[in-house]
């Protein structure tokens, strides 16, 4: 969720923000620059606390997948429906949320997101059958959708443009802190305290976060320039979306996000724990350590990529293709290993590689923000942010259906061979996304 770094030429389509005061006759209009500093970091910290909470809610099913299958008496395809619906709602809400952020500001949207997250998780805590639990995950996905774009828009108002790539990566890194809480704390709490108490406590965390945002968050620093659309009038919703989509940088950003994010998402959200436990024979504790490694590698990659992107925009495509290539090669080695049981060092390696998936996906937001004017950054970010979650949804569904199709009816668990073939599904969206990136990359270069 970033804008063009200072080291690259600014896009002609991005007008400088204007102040609300009229300049003297014959004088050049002053250009207002966000000050950064302690106030900016305070505002960002309050906003990012909502995103951390959202990631905890989002990834909670990743360590509770086997418990959910037992609680609701469902198989792999039905289990994947939880994450698919949650991701589907998240993706579908990205454009509406972007429009809401552009129109009403990030503070109100963040408050609404906290309310929906808490309601959805509380309902999930007390659900004892499949249908109510499914509805609760949909509500949770709606609340989750309102957080990331809001934090990025908040950062764009508080920080200078050159700092935005680094702040965006820090936002993703902070979100991974929420994922770390899930894999370490939530997994243990489920084992010791049980389903309902664990998810109830998570839901009630929203009360404190709501109060923090309501009482202390300011959307912009004192004296901030008013963001006005070109021509002074706000475009209609349909036109706003069309203008964003017609910009090749927005479409390139969407496909970058699509291709880089979904492998790590699928592994962390749902299928990582079952794969490691049922296909590789690891204990839940051992699988939890690898999921924790995924989060730590994600945080490390986010910091490194953020530093690179804040120095030069030329690092974008090397990061994107490096992560895509390493992910594809890593899974090819894991899935081709004789007997379907790769050695531990290779499992550690593929988990470490997938740690770069989330940070690399944020490069897509850099492309969109460098090519869109400030008054439609929320909408452009929403379009791009759909990409990875659409890829996640397609892959979650494909793996779940293949696991059920490749396993005997009524089987209590899935074999290593079934997981091997089901996980091959990942290569289809990887190939499609890579081809689209290559195609749109040339188009963006031609219009630069």
Query: Termini, distance in Å?
Result: 20 Å
Total strands: the figure is 0
Oligomer: single chain
Question: What string, H for helix and E for strand, traces the elements in order?
Answer: HHHHHHHHHHHHHHHHH
How is this fold's topology laid out?
Blueprint: H1 37-59, H2 65-72, H3 76-104, H4 106-126, H5 130-145, H6 148-158, H7 164-193, H8 195-216, H9 237-246, H10 248-279, H11 284-311, H12 316-336, H13 344-354, H14 357-370, H15 377-406, H16 416-423, H17 427-447
Helix pairs in contact: 1-4, 1-5, 1-6, 1-7, 1-8, 3-4, 3-5, 3-15, 4-5, 4-6, 4-8, 6-7, 6-15, 7-8, 7-11, 7-14, 10-11, 10-12, 10-14, 10-15, 10-17, 11-13, 11-14, 12-13, 12-14, 14-15, 15-16
Structure in words:
- By secondary structure, the protein is mainly alpha-helical.
- It has a single domain (37-221, 237-447), classed as Up-down Bundle (Growth Hormone, Chain: A).
- The protein contains 17 helices and no strands.
- It has helices spanning 37-59, 65-72, 76-104, 106-126, 130-145, 148-158, 164-193, 195-216, 237-246, 248-279, 284-311, 316-336, 344-354, 357-370, 377-406, 416-423, 427-447.
- Helix 1 packs antiparallel against helix 5, helix 1 packs antiparallel against helix 6 (148-158) and helix 3 runs antiparallel to helix 4.
- The protein is globular, with a radius of gyration of 22 Å.
- The two termini are 20 Å apart.
- The relative contact order is 0.16.
